[in-house]
Design goal:
GO terms for molecular function: glutamate synthase activity. Belongs to the glutamate synthase family. Keywords: Membrane, Transmembrane, Transmembrane helix. This protein is α/β, with parallel strands linked by helices and 554 residues long. The protein has three domains: 62 residues, no CATH class; 358 residues, Aldolase class I (TIM Barrel, Alpha-Beta Barrel); 26 residues, no CATH class. Helices cover 39% and strands 11% of the residues. It is built from 20 helices and 17 strands. β16 and β17 form a beta hairpin. α10 crosses α11. The chain starts with a helix and ends with a helix. The relative contact order is 0.12.
Length: 554
């Protein structure tokens, strides 16, 4: 291929020189040929890319095709049910509802109802009418110790930080939340001025970096926390233990993204790399975690305090519940995130293969809370791939009280799933800090879209509940959802995921399937007992036999 390039250069320049004396267009030929020549020789002599050394100039086509491949596939070849992480069918309905366009489906479903995993809601012959003119019911968040309960919408904006999203995206989301009367989770990047600009209800998420409430050493600062909590738009506080995008992996704020503005908001030094540790420094075990929850409740004058997690080791959540029972301190809500990932950029292994998927995690959390007789005082929030009313209903049926959506809300803003969120080149100005790109996102227009999408999704949720004969969406349960198990067998959710009897884990006669987690869990540490390290003669891991013996005597 190099020889072909040299041959092309020889004949092209020869022809150009020959025709230059009598053909005026030859000067335009030089304008094209000079750059090609320079690029070609650069490709041949550079040492980084073998492809370019062997195929000068034309080898660049490979990178061009890589860049445009997602767009070609999305707009020319995808069917309605293709496309990941969000298929075209769901993207389309989000756009339609956000714009206020017709969202009805002609000619029947495009899903294969014989596929294993197909799910549906069982309607009733006693269906009731859903009156859209009536006020939408709210979900009260706040347990016995909460002094300022919050009445939340059933569908809200999930955690997305300023820094990950542009200032205009944050403004539009928050104004949409204000217009639609639902909450907006700040993400762990703290409360920015853009979150406060339009007065939408906020849930302040506090991660392991304690951004916005940290001291110079990165530890939790009660005074800084109390100062931010004076803002009345902050309705709840969420402690982030882990997230679905990268559970067990601390976040990294690169030095070039740590602008003076972001540093001021997060209380860090500008222009430096900031690593969020994988775990919290304010507590190291479930008992200390309960104390931290009570501390935040006191500092916030009794506002709802909760935590977010992606389920990993099952016994760790059991340990947290044991600590709630022992101390009498309970969070007001628990947000369950699915291991299938979210808007946050993450390593491939974490997005694909770390953390429990949402459905199984939601079932587990709700069952354990019920088993410890805690569910009645704690609201469960489902976070992960909720785009339509059916997604909300399915989560509520499992046991959730509220749903959060991040990607759905991003698409309502205008996100086109270009999959460049981690490059700072988001073409719609949503996930970027490039002010030129962010300027393309018009807050007035996009906030209306967010509010419309929320309203249409909530209406669809209530409509499905009405079709099931229910006058209150809170009464949806596992018996209302069916799933195809095989080509010839279907089961209800309550058959696949049978519920526990309230308080059964408080007795010695608990179900056999929870025996391992109950034995492995301890209020003194998060990790299962079989993984606890001893330091008698240096650190070493206990053997399984030692763990079993300890578990039997515990």
């Amino acid at each position: 291929m190099r020889f072909a390039f040299y041959l092309f250069m020889f004949f092209s320049w020869g022809l150009l020189i020959f025709t230059s004396s009598f053909w005026s267009l030859s000067y335009w030929g030089m304008a094209v040929l000079i750059p090609i020549t320079l690029i070609g020789f650069y490709d041949i002599f550079q040492t980084k890319h073998a492809l370019l050394r062997n195929y000068p100039v034309v080898g660049h086509g490979r990178w061009i095709m890589e860049d445009i491949r997602p767009f070609i596939r999305q707009y020319f070849f995808e069917s309605e049910t293709d496309g990941t992480p969000v298929n075209r069918m769901f993207r389309s309905v989000i756009y339609q509802r956000a714009k206020g366009e017709m969202d009805s489906l002609p000619y029947g479903t495009k899903l294969d109802t014989q596929n294993v995993g197909y799910e549906w809601v069982s309607h009733s012959l006693s269906a009731v009418h859903h009156d859209e003119s009536k006020s939408v019911p709210r979900v009260t968040v706040g347990g016995p110790d909460c002094l300022q309960p919050y009445k939340a919408s059933v569908f809200n904006i999930s955690a997305m930080s300023f820094g990950s999203l542009s200032a205009n995206a944050i403004r539009a989301l928050n104004k949409g939340a204000k217009l639609g009367n639902f909450y907006h989770n700040t993400g762990e990047g703290s409360v920015s001025p853009y979150h406060l600009e339009h007065g939408g209800d906020l849930v302040w998420q506090i991660g392991t970096g304690y951004f916005g409430c940290r001291d110079t050493h990165g530890n939790f600062d009660p005074d800084a926390f109390k100062l931010v909590m004076k803002n009345d738009t902050i309705k709840m506080v969420e402690i982030k233990l882990s997230q679905g995008a990268k559970p067990g992996h601390g976040g990294i704020l690169p030095a070039d993204k740590n602008t003076p503005e972001i540093a001021r908001i997060r209380l860090v030094k500008a222009g430096t790399r900031v690593d969020s540790p994988p775990g919290h420094s304010a507590f190291s075990n479930p008992l200390e975690m309960m104390s931290f929850i009570q501390q935040l409740r006191d500092l916030s004058d009794g506002k709802p305090i909760g935590f977010k997690l992606c389920i990993g080791q099952k016994s760790e959540f059991v340990a947290i519940c044991k600590a709630m029972v022992q101390t009498g301190i309970k969070p007001d809500f628990i947000t369950v995130d699915g291991g299938e990932g979210g808007t946050g950029a993450a390593p491939l292994e974490y997005s694909n293969s770390v953390g429990m998927p949402l459905r199984e995690a939601l079932v587990y959390v709700c069952d354990i809370l019920k088993g410890f007789d805690l569910k009645k005082d704690i609201r469960v929030i489902a976070s992960g791939k909720a785009f339509t009313g059916f997604h909300v209903v399915r989560n509520l049926a499992v046991g959730a009280d509220i749903c959060n959506s991040a990607r759905g809300m991003m698409m309502a803003l205008g996100c086109v799933q270009s999959l460049v969120c981690n490059t700072n080149h988001c073409p719609t100005g949503v996930a970027t800090q490039d002010k030129k790109l962010a300027k393309g996102l018009v807050v007035e227009d996009k906030s209306q879209r967010v509010a419309r999408y929320h309203k249409e999704t909530v209406d669809a949720t209530l409509d499905i509940a009405s079709s099931a004969g229910l006058t209150d969406f809170c009464t949806i349960n596992r018996g209302h959802i069916y799933r195809r198990i095989s080509q010839t067998e279907i089961k209800r959710y309550d058959e696949i995921y049978p519920s526990l009897v309230a308080g059964c884990l408080l007795t010695d006669d608990y179900p056999e399937q929870f025996r391992k987690e109950m034995r492995e869990s301890s209020v003194d540490c998060f990790m299962p007992k079989k993984y606890v390290l001893e330091s008698s003669s240096g650190l070493k891991t206990k053997t399984n036999k030692e763990s079993e013996n300890n578990a039997e005597t515990a």
